[in-house]
Amino acid sequence: RLAASPPPPAGSATTDMRMSTLTELFADLEPIPQDEGPEPIVRIAYPEGFQTVMDYFRRVLVNGEYSERTLKLSGEVIARNAANYTAWQFRRKCIEVLHADATPEERQRAWRDELEYCGKRGLENLKNYQVWFHRRSCVSNLGDGSRELAFVEEILAEDSKNYHAWGYRQWVLARFGLWEGELDFIGRLLREDVRNNSAWNQRYFVLKATADLASPELLAAEAEFAEGHIELSPTNPSPWNYLRGLLEPVGYDAVPRVRAMCEERAAAGGAQPGSDGGRVMAMGLLVDVLLASGSREELDRSRALCKALGEMDPIRAAYWRWRGSRIGV
Amino acid sequence: LAGLYTDSEDGLPTGTSEEQAQVEDACQRLFDELAGPDGKLLRESVHLRRSDHVAYLHAGLGSLGEGYASLDASRPWLCYWIVHSLAILSPEPLSPSLADGVVGFIGRCIDPVGGGFCGGPYPGQSAHLAPTYAAVNSLVTIGTAEAYAVIERAQLGSFLLRMKQTDGSFTMHDDGEADVRGAYCAMAVATLTGQLEARLARGTADWLLRCQTYEGGIGATPGEEAHGGYTFCALAALVLLNQACRLRLPALVAWLSQRQMAHSGGFQGRTNKLVDSCYSFWQGGAFPLVHSVLHDLGQLPADTDLYHAPGLLDYILVCAQAPHGGLRDKPGKARDYYHTCYSLSGLAVAAAAHQLAGVPSEWVESVGVVNPVFNVLNARVDQALRHF
């Protein structure tokens, strides 16, 4: 999601500080109320305590105080709104300022504590940009990503397609070179759900970083891998997209059996009640395969396939019509 | 709209297919309620409940419940979602006092030190590209002299430049994450305020192109999964940079087309994920963009669609409208202003499609004409471009 998702029920935050403790801790400061102006709009009915915490946070921002007590305060802000990016940024500044003259060990300790804090918040806020970016900062500062793959795996066990988790995982892999074992991890996820497109995307990511995507051996092996998964569920778009993505740049004749497989499935080779046996998927890929060959007959066939697809896949009729019109142009 | 082909379980149920089946059932129930004796949707009996939505939008413009505390760092977004939705539904502009309220509030969100707009009044929050985009879009939608006057161009420009990274990407805020949203927000805001210059643009197209995946869609950063929201952002940014032709266009169009759900007519965000009304815009809105690129290349006639606009409209009207105003992700989810905005934006895009056979005129008449690059009323965009 581009903007924050719809709000969860109120009162789900765990806060560490009682209001009385907070006002005591900041007794020397005058809080700053939010400037809503004379004609307030989009006014939020903040839960109890929210405004007090924010009023003190506004004050410490204005004062530029980065201290132990303001670090605590930032935690109170985040507990009430984990999407408050200013508070997360403020935390990082606090850690830096507080440990500017510290030993490397002390600094490491601070970032480790921060990582633990982040982990707790992470499990409560799976779809929050700030938590993941903060984690990245902590791990960067620590220079140690050894526990991160396990953390992400935990998150993916809850939400196997969590976009932030996968993006973060990619960062960890590349940053720390922890490629070994990743294909196995992907394999495990695909065994759980062959339709997990994030796992398919990850496979491409790993191979792109660690292997030669033009190597005939690799292409043959990956085509076999994809085909095996097509067997399991022929209407699943993920392995078809994977096949196309791998072969389109190098040419479909790099792995001739792909065309053979498409021909077989396109001829209604696998249809059963309730499933077309991957016929539409196969016909779609065959259009691309035939186009690449370029012979007059194959272009004619390609055009005919587009026409048929317009009938069999009516939600995409306009698309198939256009594709057909572009063949041989 | 069930054709001869629909996704099926192929005898191997998994989490993905089970969830998909549940959503299809929920949508089917709604379609069935509105079907004629032949089992087909009786479109004439389905209405766009404008006045309900307008009432919901006006209520939110005033005040929001406790649950919206999680959007306390996104209040310019709330303004934009509401003001833009009203502009789509209602030809009359906001009342002067409401317009003043919006303009005044947005003005309070400016960071007077570093430029840019914050997620809420300053002091208290720091500048961020997303609320900056939402703020500028809100002001452009209101389109009065007072609204334009809120924008201090040079300061805004310096904020945008500060977010620019050496690899061509943009971070969302100081010490923040960089992904394609940053590039889009920066390009859109810069274009509207007449300051898209070489320094800001340098290297950005190259970086964006790296985000197109093997599937043909575009991810948040190079390597990440193709996703509707990021695809829209990258494509729109590239259009503004005049470099969208450098994308692998056939692959992009194929991916976009594949994202429309055969069963419900709406769009999913990624392969094998569920339909969500917000993708009515992120995916649906990508079509006019890619259309214009292909048309400029002589590869697509002007009056041709590449997606099924009536199908998308069916989803929005039947499945996304909530009973008492507002629109929702899908049946079973609660309405909210984000989904209201992007469902209606998708509606506006689809209303401008060419192949609308069978769609009741009531669904698409008096729907504001939206510029899909900015997702702001076209007339307001033109006005702003002339002004700045």
Note the topology.
The complex is a heterodimer of chains A (329) and B (388).
Chain A: H1 19-25, E1 43-44, H2 50-63, H3 68-80, H4 85-98, H5 104-124, H6 129-142, H7 148-158, H8 163-176, H9 182-192, H10 197-210, H11 216-232, H12 237-247, H13 256-266, H14 279-293, H15 296-312, H16 317-326
Chain B: H1 15-33, H2 50-62, E1 63-64, H3 75-89, H4 96-108, H5 129-142, H6 145-150, H7 153-163, H8 180-192, H9 198-201, H10 204-209, H11 228-240, H12 249-258, H13 279-282, H14 286-296, H15 309-320, H16 337-351, H17 361-364, E2 370-371, E3 376-377, H18 378-387
Antiparallel strand pairs in B: 2-3
Largest binding interface between chains = A-B, 96 and 105 residues
End-to-end gap of chain B? 46 Å
C-alpha Rg of chain B (nearest Å)? 20 Å
**How many strand elements of chain A?**
1
Order of helices and strands of chain A: HEHHHHHHHHHHHHHHH
Report how far the terminal alpha carbons of chain A are from each other.
Answer: 39 Å
Quaternary state, please?
Answer: heterodimer
Mean pLDDT of chain B: 96
Structure classification of chain A? mainly alpha
Largest sheet of chain A: none
The chain-level structural class of chain B is: mainly alpha
Percent helix range of chain B: 40-55%
The number of helical runs of chain B is 18
Measured on Cα atoms, how large is the radius of gyration of chain A? 27 Å
Spans where pLDDT lies below 50 across 5 or more residues of chain B: 1-5
Strands of the widest sheet of chain B, in order across it, are 2-3
The dominant shape of chain A is: elongated
Mean pLDDT of chain A: 93
Characterise this structure.
The complex is a heterodimer of chains A (329) and B (388). By secondary structure, chain A is an all-alpha fold. Chain A is built from 16 helices and 1 strand. Chain A has helices spanning 19-25, 50-63, 68-80, 85-98, 104-124, 129-142, 148-158, 163-176, 182-192, 197-210, 216-232, 237-247, 256-266, 279-293, 296-312, 317-326; one strand spanning 43-44. The longest helix of chain A has 21 residues, at 104-124. Chain B is mainly α and 388 residues long. Chain B has helices at residues 15-33, 50-62, 75-89, 96-108, 129-142, 145-150, 153-163, 180-192, 198-201, 204-209, 228-240, 249-258, 279-282, 286-296, 309-320, 337-351, 361-364, 378-387; strands at 63-64, 370-371, 376-377. A two-stranded antiparallel sheet of chain B has the order 2-3. The longest helix of chain B has 19 residues, at 15-33. Classes of the chains: A mainly alpha (329), B mainly alpha (388).
